[in-house]
Fold:
Amino acid sequence: MFLINCPYCGERDQSEFSAGGEAHILRPKQPTELSDDQWAEYLFMRKNIKGVQFERWNHTHGCRKWFNMVRDTSNDKIHAVYKMGEKPPVK
Amino acid sequence: MSKNLRITNSKFIDQTSRISFKFDGKTLYGFKGDTLASALLANDIHLVGRSFKYHRPRGIMACGPEEPNAIVQVGSDASITEPNTRATEIELYEGLEASSQNCWPSVNFDIGAVNNFFSPLIPAAFYYKTFMWPANFWKLYEYFIRKSAGLGKSPTEPDKDIYDHRYLHCDVLVVGGGISGIIAAKIAAKNNFNTLLIDDKNILGGTTLFQENECFKINNSYSNEWLKKEIETLKSLKNLTIKTRTSLAAYHSYNYLLARENLTDHLDINEKKDKIRQRLWKIRAKKVIISTGAMERPLIFNNNDRPGIILSSSIKRYIDYYGVKCGQRISLFTNNDSAYEAAISLNNSGVIVNSVVDIRDKTNSLIVKQAENLGISISCDGVCLTLISKTNKILEFYLSNETLHRSKFKKIIKGESINLELPLKKGQNISGHICQGHVDYVSKVKKIKLIDKSYLMEFSANTKQKKSLIEKASILINGVSLTISKITKNGFEVWIIPHTYKLTNLSKLKMNSLVNIEVDILSKYVKKYFNEK
Structure:
């Protein structure tokens, strides 16, 4: 059970949050120009890394805001938490 | 009839308030402060259940959450009955009803125990493989298999009790209220950390509570006295919360822990009503200190799971804390010093310690020396006796009626000399023959003849006794291993070489002197075997 430091509210229990999958996926500027494979790549294909991963989280039962998190999936260590739109920290 | 195995010197048991409870339908009595296990042991009940597959007898083996065998069903009501609870963790309360599990019709006479005899025919996966065919027979099998599955019986109606859960945040969580936990909590709280100390027992202190021995002194006072003062100082600390009867159940990541607090399980049935039974604590701690101490690991030998075989540390807790003797005569088998602590406690409470069997060659610790001075088993004049005390030049032994009846000690005279021999130790050469120290009968000296520096002696034996005597076989006379040279009309003859004559009390023998005889152990077994045929 994680203890997550919400950038708006502070430290809260994991049960208040919901995970939103991989972060920093950019929507293609011209979706109509994409092939089906490229569109499927954008829509469905996600990295599932063993190690440091960038994720989106939502403080569902709190401020209900989205934010980003850098988490190591091998040991569940949370390296950093930052607001949406901010640049991801460099390792 | 069951015996009362309670001694009266325990500070932790309130012998003024008697509690009645039922086990397997029989009304028994215990005292306030007892657990179900200690109350059963005080009533001399060791057999409390049956094992899962082969229905082997199961008894109380430990004294806390480590208990693997004494698993009982608590409560008879269909909504509150609880299967598979450890007898060692149930605090005794007025009106408690408990029963053995996995046995029918009773724990002493269990029909399922026949499985044990057929065990070679029931390998692993026997049920899965055997009851697969014919396929449509499953309906028939299922009834019996479902009946025999599982140990206890689940409740069939909804639980009426009230439960609660709460969150708790702290800087330091200390798990275990023993000596190390108490010190850790004290230091943390003194340094202005918001501290929580939890322990599964009803009072703090762990095993140090009843550690009253010369060998374990702290700051020149007995460790239990010292600890009592430490616990007193804990109570005045502002930052410290203490929760007893609380056991930790889970330790998740980011120091998220779950603990269960028992609130009314120890109260009388009438007092339980409308109160919260248990509370689940969801703890988030900045730092966690696990100070749960160590549990004794059982020694591995055949049938070590039978009733009556108890961990030595648990024997110590039962005698020193609950004031319950686990038996009348106890033998201890060990590979470390802790069994000697139990031996000393038992000895101090008047329990006969038959022997302490240590698999180690040699130890130099103080506690072993202390035990040696009190109660080590020594082979004395061929009779295995228990040394009670050892003062300057005087050894005191305990002789039972049986010993007196069988051996010549009944007619021993003050000042008479006896042969002393220490028990065989591992690693030494075995010389002579294997002597158990259990005397069979008493003989008289019939003849003493000096022939070329050696002595030829004749001892009496009747026809029945002569049956287990063979020429050239070994025999023990007053604990001295000798060889029978000849069987005579009224007994047998042995040769005694000058060395033996000089070292032992055989030199003091006269005509018609009494001696202790122990025949070769093998002959006894052979005789029994052929008698039975």
Q: What stands out?
A: The beta strands of chain A are 3-6, 10-13, 18-22, 52-58, 66-72, 77-83. Residues 3-83 of chain A form a domain with the Folate-binding fold fold (CATH 3.30.2270.10). DSSP finds one helix and six strands in chain A. Chain A has one domain: 3-83.
